[in-house]
Specification:
The complex is a heterodimer.
Chain A lengths: L2 H10 L3 H19 L7 H30 L4 H27 L2 H10 L1 H18 L3 H7 L1 H8 L2 H15 L5 H17 L2 H19 L1
Chain B lengths: L10 H4 L2 H5 L1 H6 L3 H8 L12 H6 L12 H5 L9 E6 L5 E4 H5 L5 E8 L4 E11 H8 L7 E6 L7 H4 L8 E5 H5 L4 E6 L2 E2 L9 E3 L12 E7 L6 H5 L23 E4 L9 E2 L7 H4 L13
Classes of the chains: A mainly alpha, B alpha+beta.
């Protein structure tokens, strides 16, 4: 099967069901938690489920361009929906933490200030806000494509902070958060033009050489 | 020396067996109103024990994996009978004891204790067990013994966490001798009047209710009396986060989270947190053990 065939099918799919599926899945998890079907500690479990989904969706969003570069399969038209849904789960994760877990503004502020792993998680959330707000065509027009793209590079620091936040919660280093962190760093590395940088470095150093001669 | 500490009430006073056996299902049912009214005859300040199904479903037992459900899922494969415990070190009667030889003849009591995990969740557990002090009296503690060290069994074939080496095994823990001799400290063999489930530490485990849960070591195969403070697993893994004492203390935070509050398990999605009491509510009983000690330095 060629990438063209797959892209042909993908073209016929609209992106909006992703929003719907995200909202439905979040609602379904909430319903499970509220009816005692997420175990003995549903607050913690729901918080984790939402947070893990957010990380997974962010990684999926970061994978769109590398996937197109390597396989020619393009999920580009779905990327906004993936990103906005990821932000929705970050927001849901934070909401469970604030409204169901701590249940107090004072405690939330204290935790954000005092606990480094919560500080980095909160920083990731804050970095994602401008991305979520500008995820529309109007913003692209207003900002201009270049500025808009620069703003959206914030997804990389946000993803790394989110990965650190996930790793840092556990009492011991665990495999799953480690793998997601590796995926984030790997995808970031794949976006860097290593050959170009190497070339620039060589050109730069040879220029340096000639200058000393 | 049994019965040195008594519950302010037992769950027999609070909740008829038929109710606690399936509390959650009943509460969800149409008869919920009438039945909770009946259970409500308990004293208002009474501890409401956590449902047995929750206590058996939600455990930290890294021998089986790091997930809370791993122990319930895998522990069935563990062999807990016959069971032998090596008693050695500074004791008059060292040796390998069959479980029954070690606790036979001692009074098995029910103690309803708060249980507080270092991860800031909590439960109320009706334990069945004997006082550790009675067992130590049986083996004869020599005068030079200042600490007790414990070791958990390792059964690699039944324990995926051991196979993956998620932390170093065997799991080891320890208490100061006065902590071990304290009337609150139990060797528990049951829960809710039922034999201990494997995921809860069968066949025999320590229960020290004023310390974080990881001090209450499960499935004990070795008890050593010694002069020096023994190494303890979490302290070896991360000394900055887990001290030898690890007394429940709401004023000394874990470096990564607050210990001021905890979430009782089994409370549902909207239960929120409760304040964690000093020494997990056993301040009157155990504070004298630590008189003059800096609890911030000896966390």
């Amino acid at each position: 099967m060629t990438a063209q065939t797959i892209n042909g099918w993908l073209r016929r799919l609209p992106p909006w069901p992703i929003y719907l599926l995200g909202a439905a899945w979040a609602g379904y998890l909430f319903w499970l938690a509220a009816t005692g079907q997420l175990g003995a500690e549903p607050i913690n479990r729901l918080e984790r489920e939402y947070g893990q989904l957010a990380i997974k969706l962010i990684v999926l969003g970061l994978a769109v361009t590398p996937l197109r570069n390597w396989t020619r399969i393009s999920l580009l038209k779905f990327r906004r929906a993936i990103g906005v849904t990821a932000f929705f789960f970050v927001l849901a994760h934070f909401s469970v933490f604030v409204l169901l877990d701590l249940q107090s503004v004072g405690r939330v502020v204290e935790e954000i200030v005092k606990r480094p792993f919560i500080t980095v998680g909160f920083a990731a959330f804050v970095l994602l806000i401008p991305l979520a707000v500008t995820s529309n065509n109007l913003s692209i027009r207003r900002l201009g494509a270049l500025t808009w793209r620069r703003v959206h590079w914030l997804v990389y620091p946000a993803a790394i902070l989110g990965g650190v936040h996930y790793l840092w919660i556990a009492k011991v280093v665990q495999l799953e958060p480690l793998l997601w962190m590796a995926a984030i760093l790997g995808l970031l590395a794949s976006r860097i033009d290593w050959a170009g940088r190497w070339q620039a470095l060589r050109v730069g150093s040879s220029r340096g050489d000639s200058a000393t001669r | 020396m049994a019965n040195r500490w008594t519950n302010t009430l037992t769950h027999a006073d609070a909740t008829p067996r038929a109710l606690w056996m399936n509390r959650r299902a009943l509460l969800a049912g149409t008869g919920a109103l009438g039945l909770t009214a009946l259970a409500g005859t308990a004293r208002a300040d009474a501890l409401e024990p956590t449902a047995l199904e929750d206590l058996r479903a939600y455990n930290n037992y890294y021998e089986f994996g790091t997930g809370k459900e791993d122990a319930a899922y895998y522990a069935g494969g563990m062999v807990t009978s016959p069971w032998s415990i090596k008693v050695d070190g500074l004791v008059d009667n060292p040796g390998d004891y069959a479980l029954q030889d070690l606790i036979g003849g001692l009074t098995v009591e029910e103690r309803i204790y708060r249980f507080r995990c270092v991860e800031a969740w909590s439960a109320v557990v009706p334990w069945n067990g004997v006082e550790l002090a009675d067992v130590l009296a049986k083996v004869g503690v020599q005068s030079g013994a200042r600490y007790v060290a414990f070791e958990t069994d390792v059964q690699p074939d039944a324990m995926p966490g051991v196979q993956r080496n998620v932390i170093p095994f065997p799991y080891v823990e320890g208490l100061r001798i006065d902590e071990a001799m304290h009337p609150l400290t139990l060797l528990a063999t049951g829960m809710w009047g039922e034999p201990m489930a494997n995921q809860n530490g069968a066949p025999i485990r320590v229960v020290v209710p004023w310390k974080y849960g990881f001090k209450s070591i499960k499935a004990i195969v070795r008890i050593t009396l010694q002069a020096d403070e023994p190494p303890t697993t979490w302290n070896m893994l991360n000394a900055g986060e887990y001290g030898f004492y690890s007394n429940v203390n709401p004023t000394v935070d874990h470096p990564r989270w607050s210990q001021a509050t905890d979430r009782p398990i089994g409370g549902g999605l909207f239960a929120g947190r409760v304040d964690t009491p000093m020494f997990n509510g056993y301040e009157a009983e155990v504070a004298p053990l630590y008189a003059g000690m800096d609890l911030r330095a000896n966390y």
